[in-house]
């Protein structure tokens, strides 16, 4: 495996070197300067780029910019900023001359003109994308005071964050009624988020490092490979274009005014970007620290929310070799320790229950881009993610439940995009490799007397291999976009060859060939009305998934996950249609979206528990449901703004997810999946320096399984394979929060002070299972009770 990685990286470097030095153009000599305004005021941090080149700059605090080293010729200059409509100008440059460009940008309240990349692996305006792309901006993450990006995803239609474990706080994001394993997570367009990292996944990544998050609902395997069945979440990090800085700190008190003891949650964020005077080199650096105490909601001595300590840092470095060639290097390091259960001041094996993981995740990526001609771009990329995870999932002071999991994922490939007028084509090839080793660690089996004194030993218990698996996926993809008047058709396909090797047990070996087509049609019915329709096919390979590595633990039982020996790949057929209306009516900017989705899963993965009385272990066996499963529903979204001071964003989903046959505890419905849910965010600039914000999420009723011991008189108890359980229906939840932020200057430095409260009415689960023998998976609803927070932020962006 190491030889394969080394070989791939050497070939990548040789290709980049040959491409750069084979056709190095002469040093350009022209210059572009100017001022960017909005409503007569200077607009800082707007970007100015030359199309089909690597050249770009950003305006300073006075709205002024300067860009040199421009070759002679005619270029399209693009001026854009988040929240403003972009402007394009065709300019002619002559050697030794300075061109002056002054531009006034108009506000884009609804974000219609924002550039997105996730729709077709190609930069384009949202209004020209053949699928709906929702964008989660840093502003919305700040408005909702989302410490991690997972929290902010609640404010995208069709997405919902849920907590799956009282002990360790294992969370996942459901999209269009399907669990987290049905969604593909990308970092800067690359499928490098490994199955191992996905166990606690999106909650590990701080919101401060993100420039934006793009979400595409519906099957995307035709372009992004395995697991993009429900949709794709693309995390795009900041690209340095100017000299900037910001640092913020926040303190939260969790459980204020509830029956539980108040827990503290402290976080610190830092970001800075530095760009060289010649604009050829830029560096972005970010850092994040979080220290969160465990929260016990029912005062039984066991946590409902885990203890977390996180230190994350990273950066992005780019260098423009010349105006056609660019290198970008990304680095992210996540160090996080989390623990739930009780006995936090003791070693894990001395607590009654402890679930704990210690993550060390290192992600790197190198991308080379070469612009060719007037509309073509070649990208060659390589990225890798290494996960070192120490864990403990045990109860009853067990020494046998320490574990170590190591994983390495790398992704190498190349992509070529070319424009033909308004039409374009994207093609590429890539290899994704995922290697994982999961072990239970050995220990000295000591013998104790009745007083707890060591009196002997039964010897040393050796390490036990749980999973030793690697996966290779060789993919080829292509997509062609063509306009027919007001209609845009996008036809794409991907062919994957996956090979899964079980190095330990061998019965997990599996391979297959998958052809995934994709068809999207966009019709501009009117200037303010768009209609889209799409069909896509996706798949999930029969591999070890992220949730398989999470073990639910209590004093009475342990829950693990495994694949059936004859497990086949899951295949999806997805159909979507949407109507998107955006128009300015008087002073109102109004955007309305209605999106219908229907997905049928052939050989759908289903899990059924089997209990081993001799060990007390319950194993959820993943099998293929005979008659598959169907997920369908409608997403609604509304964006409204009467001017520039008030902005309203809301979303609502109605859906159903059912198997063709009864599954766990005789249920056909997907468990933990509400039939309706939604969100609301209101941003009101009361004064030039004062902003008031309201945000809320709604979670409808859903069915959940309960396997504890505290059954109610109205529970219908079902016993299967020695397991007793029941299905309960949860109440609805409405989580409402308010926030106020104020811009001020202290000693000439720009600050922003903020304070707020989340879940004002404490709309939170009130029937947690209790004690050492509780069912830790019996958890639902909002992830936190009433929480009060305050903080301050220093940034050179404020007040401009």
From TrEMBL:
* Keyword Magnesium in annotation: no
What's the family?
Belongs to the TonB-dependent receptor family.
Concerning PROSITE patterns, the annotation shows:
TONB_DEPENDENT_REC_3 (PS52016)
- The signal peptide, as residue positions, is 1-24
**A Pfam family for this UniProt protein?**
CarbopepD_reg_2
Which organism does this sequence originate in?
Carboxylicivirga sediminis
Which of UniProt's keywords are assigned here?
A: Cell outer membrane, Membrane, Receptor, Signal, TonB box, Transmembrane, Transmembrane beta strand, Transport
Protein known as: TonB-dependent receptor
Record domain TonB-dependent receptor plug: where? 127-232
GO annotation, cellular component aspect: cell outer membrane
GO-annotated molecular function: siderophore uptake transmembrane transporter activity
């Amino acid at each position: 495996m190491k030889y394969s990685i080394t070989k791939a990286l050497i070939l990548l470097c040789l290709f980049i070197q040959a491409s750069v030095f084979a056709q190095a153009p002469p040093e350009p000599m022209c210059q572009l300067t100017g001022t960017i305004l909005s409503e007569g005021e200077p607009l800082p941090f707007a970007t100015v780029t030359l199309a089909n080149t690597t050249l770009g700059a950003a305006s300073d605090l006075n709205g002024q910019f300067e860009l040199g080293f421009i070759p002679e010729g005619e270029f399209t200059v693009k001026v854009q900023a988040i929240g403003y409509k972009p402007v394009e100008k065709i300019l002619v440059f002559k050697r030794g001359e300075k061109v002056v460009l002054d531009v006034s940008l108009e506000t884009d309240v609804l974000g219609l003109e924002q550039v997105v990349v996730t729709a077709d692996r190609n930069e384009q305006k949202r209004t020209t994308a053949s699928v709906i792309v929702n964008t989660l901006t840093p502003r919305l993450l700040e408005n909702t005071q989302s410490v991690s990006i997972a929290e902010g995803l609640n404010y995208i239609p069709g997405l919902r964050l849920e907590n799956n474990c009282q002990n360790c706080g294992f969370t996942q994001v459901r999209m269009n009624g399907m669990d987290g394993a049905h969604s593909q997570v990308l970092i800067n367009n690359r499928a490098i988020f490994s199955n191992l990292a996905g166990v606690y996944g999106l909650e590990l990544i701080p919101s401060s490092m993100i420039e934006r998050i793009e979400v595409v609902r519906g099957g995307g395997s035709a372009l992004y490979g395995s697991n993009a069945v429900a949709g794709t979440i693309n995390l795009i990090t900041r690209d340095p274009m100017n000299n900037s800085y910001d640092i913020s700190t926040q303190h939260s008190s969790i459980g204020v005014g509830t029956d539980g003891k108040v827990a503290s949650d402290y976080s610190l964020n830092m970001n800075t970007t530095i760009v060289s005077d010649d604009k050829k080199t830029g560096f972005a650096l970010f850092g994040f620290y979080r220290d969160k105490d465990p929260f016990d909601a029912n005062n039984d001595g066991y946590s409902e929310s885990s203890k977390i300590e996180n230190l994350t840092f990273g950066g992005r470095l780019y260098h423009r070799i010349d105006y056609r060639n660019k290198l970008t290097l990304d680095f992210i390091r996540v160090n996080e320790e989390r623990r739930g259960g009780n006995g936090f001041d003791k070693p894990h094996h001395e607590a009654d229950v402890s679930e704990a993981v210690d993550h060390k995740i290192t992600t790197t990526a190198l991308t080379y881009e070469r612009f060719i001609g007037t509309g073509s771009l070649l990208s060659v990329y390589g990225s890798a993610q290494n996960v070192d995870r120490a864990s403990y999932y045990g109860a009853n002071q067990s020494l046998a439940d320490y574990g170590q999991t190591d994983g390495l994922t790398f992704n190498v490939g190349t992509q070529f995009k070319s424009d033909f007028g308004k039409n374009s084509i994207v093609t590429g090839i890539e290899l994704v490799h995922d290697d994982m080793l999961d072990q239970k660690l050995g220990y000295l089996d000591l013998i104790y007397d009745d007083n707890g004194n060591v009196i002997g030993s039964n010897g040393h218990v050796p390490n036990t291999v749980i999973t030793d698996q690697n996966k290779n996926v060789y993919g080829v993809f292509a997509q062609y976009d063509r306009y027919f008047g007001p209609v845009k058709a996008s036809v794409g396909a991907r062919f994957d060859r996956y090979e899964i090797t079980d190095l330990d047990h061998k019965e997990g070996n599996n391979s297959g060939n998958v052809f995934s087509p994709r068809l999207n049609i966009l019709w501009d019915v009117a200037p303010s009305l768009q209609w889209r329709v799409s069909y896509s096919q996706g798949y999930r390979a029969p591999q070890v998934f992220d949730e398989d590595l999470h073990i639910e633990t209590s004093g009475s039982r342990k829950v693990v996950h495994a694949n059936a020996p004859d497990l086949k790949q899951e295949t999806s057929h997805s159909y979507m249609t949407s109507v998107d209306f955006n128009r300015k009516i008087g002073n109102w900017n109004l955007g309305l979206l209605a999106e219908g989705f229907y997905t049928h899963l052939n050989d759908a993965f289903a899990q059924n528990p089997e209990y081993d009385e001799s060990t007390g272990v319950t194993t959820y066996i993943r099998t293929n449901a005979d008659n598959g499963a169907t997920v369908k529903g409608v997403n609604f979204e509304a964006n409204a703004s009467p001017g520039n001071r008030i902005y309203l964003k809301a979303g609502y989903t109605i859906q159903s997810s059912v198997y063709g046959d009864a599954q766990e505890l005789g249920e056909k419905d997907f468990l933990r999946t509400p039939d309706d849910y939604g969100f609301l965010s209101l941003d009101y600039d009361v004064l030039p320096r004062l902003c008031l914000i309201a945000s809320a999420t709604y979670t409808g009723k859903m069915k959940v399984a309960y396997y504890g011991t505290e059954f109610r008189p109205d529970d219908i108890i079902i016993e299967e394979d020695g397991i007793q359980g029941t299905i309960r229906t949860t109440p609805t939840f409405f989580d409402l929060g308010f926030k106020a932020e104020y811009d001020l200057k202290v000693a000439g430095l720009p600050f922003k002070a903020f304070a707020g409260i989340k879940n004002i009415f404490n709309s939170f689960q009130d029937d947690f299972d209790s004690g050492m023998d509780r069912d830790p998976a019996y958890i639902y609803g909002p992830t936190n009770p009433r929480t009060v927070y305050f903080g301050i932020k220093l940034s050179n962006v404020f007040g401009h």
